[in-house]
Amino acid sequence: MVRKIVSKVYPITLAAIFVLFVILLISIIRTSIFGEVDLHKYAFFEISLLLLIAVLAEIGVLHSKQPSAILLLLVGMLMSESVLHFNIFKDEELIQLFAQLGAIFLLFKVGLHSSFKTIFSKENAVVGALGVLLPFIVGITYALATGGNFAYSMFLGAALTATSVGVTVSILKEKNLMKEKFAEVIIGAAIIDDVLGLLVLSFILNVPAGYELPQIVSLFTSVFANGLTPEFLEFALPLGQVILSTIVFLGGGIIAGKWFIKNVIDKLELDNMSFLMAIAFLHLYSYVAEVIGLSAIVGAFLSGLLLTGSRHIKNIEEKVYPLETIFVPIFFISLGLLINVNDVIIFIVPILIISVLAVLTKVIGCGAGAVLSKMNKQDAMIVGFGMAPRGEVALIVASIGFARGALDPSGYAIISAVALLTTIFPPFVMNYLINKRKVVQK
Amino acid sequence: MRTIPELIENSMHRKREKQSSPLIPILFGVILLVIIAISIFNMKPEDQKSGFFEIVFILLMAIVAHAFSVNINKPMVLVLIFVGILLSNSFLSTIWPYLPNLKMIPIDPPNVFPNMEVLQTFATFGLIILMLKVGLKEEIGHMFRKDDIPLIILDVAVPFAIGFLYAQYTGGSFLFSMFLATALTATSVGVTVSVLEEFKAIKLPFAETIMGVAVIDDIISLALLAIITSLAVGAESQTILNLGFLLIAGIFYLIAGAKLFGLIVENHIDKGGFDQETLLIVLASVFLYSYVAEFIGLSTILGAFFSGLLLTKSKYRHKILVFAKAIGALFVPIFFISLGLLIDVQAVLKFWEPVLILTFVAVGAKILGCGIGALLSRKSITESLAIGVGMAARGEVSLVVVLFGLNAGVLTSNDYSIISAVVIITILVVPLLLNRLVPKIISLDNLRKADQNKEKSNIRYLS
């Protein structure tokens, strides 16, 4: 009898407790978002919320076949203060640190997946260089012509040089074309683009604030007329310092890093220890690059590239994956959070114009490079459109410019919107071109 | 700009031909040293970079500690906490006046970690990942056994009683004695677990007992804390209300949380392959579950541990563990170093007598209580001793208790530094003692297994 009652009551109580708990959970979330919570505790809520958003975005990726970076950016935009009119993410410092780590791990992975030999071939160098020069010049010219200040034009130029081949690669993988010549060129040239773009960015960051183009031109002409003037030195010294330390960092970093990997990391037996070493190596290089005046991501890329020579590469790649999974989505969401949606709506015309210019310059620049390195016209077009997405590197450029105060919110909104548009549309064109190519071949 | 790929290739060629001039690498090394020196001595304070630097620096220190611990054959946890102490503000400012007056070193002691808040958050993440890892390794059935009931009772009662009596004897007020006693009751499983992990002893029966009992005594201490805090604040009705809320919420949290996790595991984690999405779901739910625990008034540690336990039901249990380890590699050292940073060296030097006595009392009480309890729960003498020693480490929960006492005005800042110093010292003592005990138990365990095998083979032989 008693057992019967218990067996009937038990599931009901369990269900009741469950319901009450869910109510408790919801009320906790409600107070967390709207109420006042101790900031130290709130950090956990923030991070779990960000990770949950990332989960939703991943599910969205499966359905919409858009790259997760784009979806995360859009979600971040929707959750930003400009849309919701209140701030969900209160502990900004923490999110920024997480985002910075995200950018570092992203570039580290890019570095881990590339190798010196396949990247720095002649074809790639030609395609990459043209793909950087043309967008850079056109970007700067456009910005100056429409009355932007010098810093903004430089940033726009630098943002347009970058290439994100994530989407392109996923399409190529789907169609089993990764072994084709043009696929190799796209990947190699994209990495060269990124490296050049990052270096350009590093130099721009060190141009002293407040200079405009005519001023700089007159500074240079005065050097030819009067020799070194103190005004010129004031302008050129920081820049020269960066160039010098960049050379020392890249040259010395490669030699010292190779030595370190060969004599220290490769001598380690324990998997765990070698991974820890690799992470410390990555962080040290990023930090040094950041302090020198380059940006942390250059150091991250370089350390990744160097670690490809280690015998522990498999182990490192495997273990970096979960770290990347935490930090990278937070990075993209945080980029979206920074975008002011009102600015995007106001500046929709320039955004569209710049996006068209961005795609055209890449298609023409990279296409011409591909034709120069003796590819046929069709493949050259595919390379051009494959390289057109700007994606994460352009976003990084914009966010760094914003963080350093070189870009105002509207400038940031414009550049990130352009990055978004150029990443969404060109892959469709490329897809179409590839399908057509197959028909022709048949 | 086009020269950059060439530059990289050139430098590689040079390396291959072994004719490279040493100038550039040497310059690079100099830059490296200068940057580290500048960052430590904070000559160029920039907020955004300093947070980043602290993490880089802690990682580097963790690796040095790792290498060092292998060399001197001591548990890594110990070395990490020690490194934390060496880097702490209080230690540096204590030792600074005695350093030879070199021109190279600035007069003022450096503040290596100005950005403590971010560091604390990272440390707590480390703790969460650590407890998640521990939970993933356990079996629920092995942890909570009826046999262990005397152990649990004595584990809580003896240290509490001894702490209370000690405080009364030294002339503390009733509330002060309650706070001290509660602080001495809670065990820090984090430290003990990492030591056991390093010895690969986490699967042994005595380690599982420690885990189960430690979790329970954490819960009891938190309940005690809730009671005495409300006593200290003085609102009677509030007390019962708070305690009632904590108890009910805690029960809901465990029962319903388990159900919720079961649903998540069944419908989201185990469905389909193990990909990025799965990992994100796991991490998000673990963080959220820990946050809810913290919000209710339980601690994050419990939340993380339980979510680990609940995740053992998943078929991807081992993959999750592998990933948790990789993430832990970044965060967990930060936790241990931050424990070392918390200790106030000056206070320890100033009040070395009470600190020493209280440390003896704290360690002795646990060894006595748990040791006898374990003997009553039918463990061998060596195992009982190991359980007693393993439970002697106090940690996060004790620090929380002390902090509450300080905020409630019951503890003075001197009391605070004394008790927190004792807490940290108990953490240091445990690995040293376990270092000797655990190998013994492992060899005993091996012997027993060998005996069992022999018996089995004998039986087989006879039959």
What would you say this structure looks like, in words?
- Chain A is an all-alpha fold.
- In chain A, about 80% of the residues lie in helices and about 0% in strands.
- The longest helix of chain A is centred in the middle third of the chain and has 34 residues, at about 230-265.
- Chain A starts with a helix and ends with a helix.
- Chain B has about 475 residues and is mainly α.
- In chain B, helix 6 runs parallel beside helix 14 (about 300-310) and helix 18 (about 380-390) packs antiparallel against helix 20.
- The model of chain B is unreliable at about 10-20 (pLDDT under 50).
- Classes of the chains: A mainly alpha (about 450), B mainly alpha (about 475).
- At the A-B interface, helix 1, helix 2, helix 5, helix 7 and helix 10 of A face helix 1, helix 2, helix 3, helix 6 and helix 12 of B.
Strand composition percent of chain B: under 5%
Question: How would a textbook summarize the main sheet of chain B?
Answer: none
Beta-strand percentage range of chain A: under 5%
Overall pLDDT of chain B, averaged? 77
Q: Level of helix content of chain A?
A: over 70%
Question: What ranges of chain B have pLDDT less than 50 throughout 5 or more consecutive residues?
Answer: 12-19
Q: What's the CATH architecture of the largest domain in chain A?
A: Up-down Bundle
Total individual domains of chain A: 2
Element-by-element helix/strand order of chain B: HHHHHHHHHHHHHHHHHHHH
| Percent in helix of chain B | over 70%
> What is the number of helices of chain B?
20
**What is the radius of gyration of chain A computed over CA atoms, rounded to a whole number of angstroms?**
25 Å
Count of alpha/pi helices of chain A = 21
Spans where pLDDT lies below 50 across 5 or more residues of chain A: none
Largest sheet of chain A: none
What is the number of strand segments of chain A?
Answer: 0
Q: Overall mean pLDDT score of chain A?
A: 79
